[in-house]
Amino acid sequence: MKLQRKNRLRALSVSALAVTSALVLSACGSDDNTGGDGSEGGQKDAGAADIKCDGDGNLIASGSSAQKNAVDAWVQAYQQACSGTKINYKATGSGAGIQEFLQGKTAFAGSDSVLKEDEVEQSAKVCKSGKAVNLPLLAGPVAIGYNLSGVDDLVLDASTLAKIFDSKITKWDDAAIKKLNPDADLPSTKIQAFHRSDESGTTDNFTSYLAAAASGDWKHEPGKAWAAKGGQSADGSAGVASNVKQTEGAIGYFELSYATGNNIPAVQLDTGAGDPVEATVENSSAAVSAGKIVGKDGDLAMELDYATKEEGAYPIILVTYEIACDKGNKAETLPATKSFLKYAASEDGQKVLADIDYAPMPEEIITQVRKAVDSLA
User: Fold this and answer.
1) Which positions make up the binding site for phosphate?
2) If phi over 0 gives left and psi between -120 and 50 gives alpha, with beta otherwise, what is residue 65?
3) Can you quote a single GO CC term (predicted)?
4) Per the annotation, where are the binding residues?
5) Containing domain of residue 108, as a range?
6) Is residue 137 classed as helix, strand or coil in its secondary structure?
7) Is 262 inside a domain boundary?
8) Residue 295: strand pairing partners
9) Quick one: 264 and 186 in the same domain?
10) Strands, E, within 250-301: which ranges?
11) CA 359, CA 64: separation in Å to the nearest integer?
């Protein structure tokens, strides 16, 4: 098993390097919008995904750092097929991405939280004849990564996590942690809890889980901004993962792809089910499938059950939305926006997600997303 894991991580690293190289080349390339064969708009490379190219020039988007690894993979495949479009996605965090979209700076935004009512109202200034809508394109587990020498398997529950991240449990050999891990050799090392410094949908989903599953121990309102006192902050999921990897006694929350990509072990959750639940794509898919669409009038916002006790369902999950205008998109970016989002929502686009530790959207939901993307105007 350990050898398989190492090989898998090595494959992920190679994939990440390939994606990064593709992005660097696209960012530093010329403004020549011809394909490799000299034709206008760029043509598909042999063996590329079935992508219908439309529009050209630069497509700027920003937001969720949780989806960055997925967007990188989509961008790599899309730009191989459509060399006339250069896509620049900035992982600024969900909060900053929404604000840039509402200011008209980007073609679309990525967010791990649905738009608030006042944000939908503000979108009328950008979406001249419509409003911004939430389009769920991927999902996945928020892993609780840790760095504790000699402890290869760690089980925690919502109550214990709430106390750790609220600075009420400060040592790894605390009685509550020992009770959940009777066979582990837990040191008296100080707990170094890391949270996001930027407004983040990952934080929103993690704190929504704590509020739902440990309401007696987590008294803070869920939200994109970290509300609890204490702990240490870092920018983006990459920043939190990097700090956990480098700090003995550390614990933090980030998407599973950041855990596997950095070889960081993840906590198993005691949800009250028969067995602790691992943070895996399959286990998060079980929880996502139990969610439902609650948005109206073309909006596809979802409601998730963070307190589920279903066997094999990992409850700390997020759904990442691409946010665009249902009507009133800028004419110069609409064709490329629709083309790129169509690919991301396509069967080919969804297939790449499981290989990089994201969960594809359930068929009954992604079918609705495809229709919504087709209707963008």
Assistant:
1) 64-66, 94, 112, 200-202
2) alpha
3) ATP-binding cassette (ABC) transporter complex
4) 64-66, 94, 112, 200-202
5) 2-138+324-374
6) strand
7) yes
8) none
9) yes
10) 250-255, 268-270, 292-293
11) 16
Tokens of 335: 């064709």
Residues 247 and 364 in one domain: no
CATH number at residue 265: 3.40.190.10
Q: Are strands 317-325 and 108-111 parallel, antiparallel or unpaired?
A: antiparallel
Which one, of 85, 94, 83, lies nearest residue 60 by Cα? 85
Per-residue pLDDT tens digits of the chain, which is 377 residues long: 333 333 333 333 333 333 333 333 233 332 333 333 333 333 334 335 679 999 888 999 999 998 999 999 999 999 999 999 999 999 999 999 999 999 999 999 999 999 999 999 999 999 989 999 999 999 999 999 999 999 999 999 999 999 999 999 999 999 999 999 999 999 999 999 999 999 999 999 999 999 999 999 999 999 999 999 899 999 999 999 999 999 999 999 999 999 999 999 999 999 999 999 999 999 999 899 888 999 999 999 999 999 999 999 999 999 999 999 999 999 999 999 999 999 999 999 999 998 898 999 999 999 999 999 999 99
Q: State both tokens at 107.
A: 């073609």
279 and 160 fall within a common domain: yes
Contact 107, 55 (CB under 8 A): no
